[in-house]
C-alpha cells in the first residue's frame, strides 16, 4: 500500500476533510476515510460493504469486470491446469510457490496431521444420524480447539503455523467422516500414500474390506475443484473469519465461523441449490416457465448458479469447471445426463436473455460444480462441505495474514441508527 499522492476532499457545510488516496499493486485506488469522522463528524454508509476495502491483502486479486482471478499474482487458469492443490495451499499460506524440497516437506507435514484425536470419533456420536454434514463440520471444527489446545497461542508464529497445518490436514477427514456417519458407514482412516484429493476420495468411498482403486481422472477433477474454490478474496465467509479472528479468537473457532457463513444458499450453498433447481425444473420444456418466474421479482425465485457480487462479466472459474465437467462425464461414460442437458439449455437461454444480459448475470463456478460432484457420486448435502474443505486453505491464509498485520485492530463496523429516539421507560401497568 502506498500514498498515491492524490487527495479526496469531502465538504460538509463549514467542515471539510482532505482524505489520502491509497494505491495497491493492482485494482482501483481507495480513499482512506479513517480520519473522516474526526474531521467532519460523519461516518460512511455502505451496507454489505460492497464498496469498502476492509483490509490490505497480498493473497488474492479479483477484477470482476475483466473476469480476472489471481492468487499471489498467478492466474487461476494456470494454477488449475499446472499446479496441485497442495502447491496452491502452500502458495496461499506462504506467498510463493514451493521448490521441490519445500513442497515435499509441506506435503509430508500435512499428511502427518490428517488423523483426528481418537476422542473426536465419540464426538460424532453426539450428532443425529440425519444431521446435515455442514452442521457436523461446523461443530466438529469448532471443537478442535478443545483437542489441540497447544496450538492456539495466536501470538506465537510457530503455533499459528501448526494450527494452519492441522486445520488444512484434518478438514478432509472430518468432512468425509461427517458423510460416513450420516450413512452409518465405517470411518475410513487417511492414507499417507495418496495425494490430498485422492485421500479425500478414499475416505469418502472406500470400504474397509476392499482395496480402493483411485480413478486418476476423478482425482484430478477433485484436485481442480479444490484449487478453484481455495480462496476468493474478502467474500462473506472470509470476512467472517477475519472479523472473528480480529477479536483474538482461536483459529479453529474462526474457521468454524467461516463454515457457518459459507452454508447460506447465496454463498457456498449455491451448487446444492443449483441441483435442487434443476431437479425442480425437471424437463427442458419447463425452462421458459421457470425463466418467467425468475424475472418476476414477486416470485422470489432466482436462477441459482448465476450472478456474482464481484464478477460482472464472467467467472473465470466457471470456464475451467465447465471443461472439467465434460472430462468427468466422458470418463464415467455419462453421455446423456438429463441434468447436464438441462443445465446447458438453461445456460444457453439465460445468457442470451435480455434480463440476464442487462444485469450482467453469467454462470458462476457453482453452475457446473454441482453436476460434476453428482457424477462423481458425491451427495448433494456434501457439496458445501467440499467447498469448505477447499476454502479452509484460503480462510487460514487470510486469518494468518490478518493476525500478522502490524497494528491489527478488532473489526467493528458502525451503523446508521434508524430506531426510536431516546424515551422514558413506562411501567407495564401504564402501557396500552
Ligand atoms: N437470478 C435472477 N436475478 C438475479 C440473480 C439471479 N441469480 N442474481 C441477481 N439478480 C438480479 C437482482 O434481482 C437484481 O435485479 P434488479 O437490479 O432488477 O433489482 C440484479 O440482478 C442485481 O442483483 P443483486 O442482488 O444486487 O446482486 P448481488 O451482487 O448483490 O448478488 C448474488 C450476488 C447473491 C450471488 C446473486 O447473484 C444470487 O443470488 N445468485 C444466485 C445464487 C448463487 O449462485 N450464488 C453463488 C455465488 S458464487 C459463490 O458464492 C462461490
Low-confidence stretches: none
Q: State the end-to-end distance.
A: 58 Å
Structural class: mainly alpha
Query: Element order, helices and strands?
Result: EEEHEEEHHHHHHHHHHHHHHHHH
Number of helices: 18
**What is the helical fraction, as a range of percent?**
40-55%
Give the mean pLDDT.
93
The percentage of residues in β strands lies in 5-15%
Ligand set: acetyl coenzyme *A
Major β-sheet annotation: 3 strands, antiparallel
Backbone shape:
globular
Q: State the strand order across the main sheet.
A: 1-2-3
Rounded to the nearest angstrom, the radius of gyration is 24 Å
Describe the 3D structure.
With 432 residues, this protein is mainly α. The chain is built from 18 helices and six strands. The chain has a three-stranded antiparallel β-sheet. It has a three-stranded antiparallel β-sheet with strand order 4-5-6. Acetyl coenzyme *A binds next to loops.
Features:
432 residues, 7% strand, 6 strands, mainly alpha, three-stranded antiparallel β-sheet, binds acetyl coenzyme *A, 18 helices
Q: Secondary structure elements and their pairing?
A:
Blueprint: E1 2-12, E2 15-23, E3 30-31, H1 36-40, E4 60-63, E5 68-71, E6 74-75, H2 76-82, H3 85-94, H4 100-111, H5 119-125, H6 133-147, H7 157-183, H8 196-205, H9 216-228, H10 236-245, H11 251-262, H12 270-281, H13 287-295, H14 316-331, H15 338-352, H16 354-358, H17 366-375, H18 383-404
Helix pairs in contact: 2-9, 3-18, 6-7, 6-11, 7-8, 7-18, 8-9, 9-14, 9-18, 10-11, 10-18, 11-18, 12-17, 14-17
The protein binds acetyl coenzyme *A.
